[in-house]
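Rotation project, supervised by the postdoc (A.L.). Task for the rotation student: set up a whole-complex structure prediction and record inputs and outputs verbatim in this book. Inputs entered:
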Amino acid sequence: MSTDVADKVDDHLWSAIGDPTRRRMLDLLLTQGDGTATTLSDHLPVTRQAVAKHLVVLDRAGLVRVTPTGREKRYRVDDVQLSRAVAQMASVGSTWDARLQRIKRIAETIQRAQQD
Amino acid sequence: MSTDVADKVDDHLWSAIGDPTRRRMLDLLLTQGDGTATTLSDHLPVTRQAVAKHLVVLDRAGLVRVTPTGREKRYRVDDVQLSRAVAQMASVGSTWDARLQRIKRIAETIQRAQQD
DNA sequence: CTCGTGCGCAACCACTAGTTGCAGGAGGTT
DNA sequence: AACCTCCTGCAACTAGTGGTTGCGCACGAG
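Outputs recorded:
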């Protein structure tokens, strides 16, 4: 069967949002508009260096864009790419939902048949 | 701010479905009804041992249930728990979507104000 | 009983998330 | 100009994980 949902997702994107720390970083960037490695690490339980590494990953996935201003580098979320990521999550979710419902329907059919 | 979306998700669940191989395994279990480590590895690009390790992770996350039959162990998806996982993905997705739309609305407001 | 097949365990490799420590460069202050 | 501060980047090290190979064991079918 070629309807394998795993084939439809961009693994770089998915693994980028798969990490809990990176999800929280995206969350912070969304609520605060922008941020640097240092300001983000203030609101996270990890060091600045760890945040910097995650920012590299997010940048490679295209989820953030960076603008060097003076001696700091401000990051902010790339709306389009994050929308794509959200769409992929929704795609996987709806696929699984559909299969679960199909299974449920079959189970009910069997149960009804046994009651007759 | 307590609206942090990362606080709402079960990290065990999320990291379980975060791995591409595990997603494909769930997919196979959904389409085929059930499977063992060996039968799953036939349809995957990894060895049986790797699959077995993933099955442990999925089992700990509650996403699959196992029934030993004879000398083999048949795994199948736990519908309720997978539904929970799907719901969490949808939750994160809709939260981000809402924030993106709020940002977009603000941006449009600013642009309109500048044009006046 | 024997053979085959499925499972589990152990050792090993590669990569990633995290840490600490240090060097360097841009900005503001005196 | 000199200095101090603060943010960044690089390097080395640890812990955990996804993956492999190899082996031993047990159970079911012939």
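Student's summary: The first strand of chain A starts at residue 64 and ends at 69.
Supervisor addendum: The beta strands of chain A are 64-69, 72-77.
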